[in-house]
Specification:
single chain, 263 residues, TIM Barrel, 8-stranded parallel barrel, 11 helices, binds 3-methyl-2-oxobutanoic acid, binds sodium ion, pantothenate biosynthesis
């Protein structure tokens, strides 16, 4: 598969074609996921939970993110690689530049940050320096203690309006992608319509430009309760590779997520 670029993703949005994203944290899975045609790999700080066994993403360090990003980059076959800046590694614009530089040099091609309007300056500085940014809105797991748990965001009209404004502001600041986690489908659809940049969703309904899932969730091997917005793609699959293929196809055909998998 040829190399995916931001241009590829933007043209897919303009054509109304969906693209798929999965997390990976190592070379072998990055190889498999990119080989089946998934456009983007997210080296998520979800690795703190699914690899390290923590009960949140807060303990993950920048060095750990760089280590996993480098491993993913070595296995990758042409997908675009996005990496998360972990908790408190982008608290100020200056710290953000340094942290992002480290992940880009480890092999990331897009940097993802969690938050709203307060990120505008950092996003603008990164964009000016050639670093594409994805702004993660809605349920932002690094803020779980402030949010009071992992809950759907933007349910009342004030917080929905705030999210719409944050999305617009961060796109204007220079964000190349948006990601919405656990927001009502109608709100995600509106933000996707308003945005010129591609919008990736998780628990955000069927109308975003792309979908992302944590690999362990969609393979059905994450311990504990299955979140409503995931689907076990190993059900009926003949191999892990087949499960990745079925996910990619379901996203591109628009059959994932369905209504029961949305809010
Ligand atoms: O860390 C992660 O895997 C993420 C996705 C859930 C969007 O940020
Ligand atoms: Na994350």
């Amino acid at each position: 598969m040829s190399n995916i670029t931001l241009h590829t993703l933007t043209s897919l949005k303009q054509k109304g074609s969906k693209f798929s994203v999965l997390t990976a944290y190592d070379a072998t899975f990055a190889h498999l996921i990119s080989s089946v045609g998934v456009e983007m790999i997210l080296v998520g700080d979800s690795l703190g939970m699914v690899l390290q066994g923590h009960d949140s993403t807060l303990p993950v360090t920048l060095d750990e993110m760089a280590y996993h990003t480098a491993a993913v980059a070595r296995g990758n076959q042409g997908a675009m690689i996005m990496a998360d800046l972990p908790f408190m590694s982008y608290a100020t614009p200056e710290q953000c530049m340094q942290s992002a530089g480290k992940l880009m040099q480890a092999g990331a091609q897009v940097i993802k940050l969690e938050g709203g309007a307060w990120l505008a300056e950092s996003i603008s500085l990164l964009a000016d320096r050639g670093v594409p940014v994805c702004a993660h809105l809605g349920l932002t797991p690094q803020a779980v203690n402030r949010l009071g748990g992992y809950r759907v965001q933007g349910k009342d009209s004030a917080s929905a309006q705030q999210m719409i404004e944050d999305a617009r502001l961060l796109e204007q600041a220079g964000a190349s992608l948006l990601l919405l986690e656990c927001v009502p489908s109608l709100l995600a659809a509106e933000i996707t319509r308003n945005a010129d940049v591609p919008v990736i969703g998780i628990g955000a309904g069927p109308d975003t430009d792309a979908q992302v899932l944590v690999m362990h969730d969609m393979l059905g091997i994450t311990p504990g309760r299955k979140p409503r917005f995931t689907r076990n793609f190993m059900d009926g699959a003949s191999s892990i590779e087949d499960a990745f293929r079925r996910y990619d196809t379901a996203v591109k055909q628009g059959s994932f997520p369905n209504q029961d998998e949305s809010f």
